[in-house]
Structure formats: structure tokens, C-alpha cells
Design goal:
alpha/beta; 3-stranded antiparallel β-sheet; 14 strands; globular; disordered N terminus; binds S-adenosylmethionine
Amino acid sequence: MSSAVLQIATGNPVKPGIAQDRRQILRGLTSSQKWLSPKYFYDKRGSELFDQICSLPEYYLTRTELKLMQAHLDEVASLVGQRAAVIEFGAGSNIKVRLLLDRLEKPAAYVPVDISPEFLLEQVDSLRGDYPDVHMQPVFADFTQPFDLPEHPVMPERNLVFFPGSTIGNFTRAGALEVLEVMAAEAKPGGALLIGVDLQKDASILRAAYNDSEGVTAQFNLNLLARLNRELGADFDLEKFRHQAIYDDEERRIEMRLLSTRRQKVSVAGVTIAFAAGEYIITEYSHKYEPEEFHALARRAGFCPRRTWIDDERLFSLQYMTVRSQG
Ligand SMILES: C[S@@+](CC[C@H](N)C(=O)[O-])C[C@H]1O[C@@H](n2cnc3c(N)ncnc32)[C@H](O)[C@@H]1O
């Protein structure tokens, strides 16, 4: 870990790496249905692989969201007004926030929040020179927990939480409500949320998006096991697992799995985990919404949906909502 990483504000007590999550990881791997949180995908290699996924032809999510942003950010900017502090949850690559900062009127601050510290710093470093008037303060935190926001030299007029990429889909519907509540608390009364939400659609489009022909999503998924080997002293043989992504019609979600191709035993942090042939670990959900269903969830979390933009093919939505005033 470079010393620069240590200069990132720590919003809540997370440490780089996954060693501190040993218990949670083992709980998932010893459950009757094995599972791992998708937040463990994002070491530096995982963040880079996700970036590659975003430019794959099958991965319609990123290019459709970018098109929606190009088309509607002027309207977003007029709704947000001047001197906003942009708080980006799960920032990843800076390509989307550049579009937003370019259109907003005199943005005061940019606070990207992520659990992938090296990638986070790299992305912020490459932004600083281009936006000298925007106070940049990366926060290394797990956004599923409330975290402290840094102070800014210029008091922003309001907070705009930015949550692109349909990362909200990684949470169950109940979990998404909790994350939306954290966002409403961070945006504060008078603040707003700009969020990308993937829509329900033909399952064949979804299956292709998560089973790309170049196998990058498979590499991204399998990197999770490589990360457990590196950071938890596990001994997964990556040749004996394979990537699988299925669409669950009832739950309206993609389920990403790592499937054991044979009966085997793996040691993880000193604990032996047995796999039957064909047994799998669930590594990620990607829930798909109808716009109205997402509006209802956001209302329960304390937001007022104001605008929803959808592309002509009805693939993806960009939604703008404000925090409901209390009382
Ligand atoms: C699906 S990627 C989306 C990246 C980018 N926002 C986009 O629109 O393409 C999810 C991002 O959220 C971060 N992330 C995932 N879970 C997180 C958590 N619990 N707390 C903080 N960051 C998280 C990952 O490191 C990654 O950068």
C-alpha cells in the first residue's frame, strides 16, 4: 500500500484488503448456499477488469448510461444549481463524473467514496489538474455503513449524491432500501441523488451482458478467488472453477456464480471448505427494476423522484430525486 493511500480520508473504520473480513467471508463459504459479497471483487486488478467490462459490446449498461448523461445533464445541472458538492458512491473510473463536473455550474467539491483505495487515488489524481477549482477529497469507506463526510473550504450549496452504473442492483431489494437511506442521510435535506438504474428487459440481452464472448466477466469473477488466495492464504485452483451467470425470472435478477467443476476441498484462512461437483458460490446479484418500482423504493428511503430519463430501447434509466424535507 503506498503512503499516498494513507492520505485518503477514512469515512468509517475499514482497512485496505480483506483480511479484516475473514469471519464474514468464512460465514459465506460455510453457509448451506455458499456466497461472497460482490464488494470483494474490487482489489486493483478487479477494478481494472470492471473497467474493461464497461467497454464490452455486450455490456449495454455503461454506454447507454453515458448516452443518457450526454443528453440530459444540462437539465440535471439546472435542477441542481450552483456550487454543489458531488458525493459519488462506488466511484470506480472517473469517466462519468467528468461529464457531470463539466456540466454543473461551479461545482464546489467532489467526494468519491470507494473501497478500492489504490484505484480511487489513481482516478482522483488524474482529475485534479483538470478541475482546479473543485475541492477533491476521496473517502475510503464502505458505503453500506454511515460514514463521515469531509469538510470543504467553500461551503457547498447542496450535496448531490451520484450513484451511476446500476451498482444499486447488487443489493437485494431490502438491502437497496438501506443503501438509499444512507444516501438520503449523506445528501441531507435540500440535497439530491442522481442514480443509474438498470431496467427489466429480455433475458437474452441480460444473459449476454454477463457472459461476454471475450470472457472478461469470467476473469473478473474468478479474480475473487485469486484475491482470496493472495490475501487470505486460500488455495483455490482457478482451473477447477468456472464462471456462470443466470437470469432468475422470479427475483428479476442476474445471479453470478463460481461453479466447482468437481468434488474438491479448499483451504481458506486455515478452514477447510468442501465443494460437491456442480456446487457454486453466489458472488453477485444484479437486480433489474421497472422505473415505478424503483420510485416506490426511493420514496420509502426519503426521496422524491423528480425526473426519470430512459433510452429509446428501454434498456436503462437515469433518475434524479431530491431528499424529502422532514416534517
Ligand atoms: C459496479 S462498479 C461501478 C463503478 C462506476 N461507478 C460505474 O458507474 O461504472 C462498483 C464500484 O463500487 C465500489 N464498491 C462496491 N461495493 C462497495 C462498498 N460496499 N463500499 C464502497 N465502495 C464499493 C467498487 O470498488 C467499484 O468501484
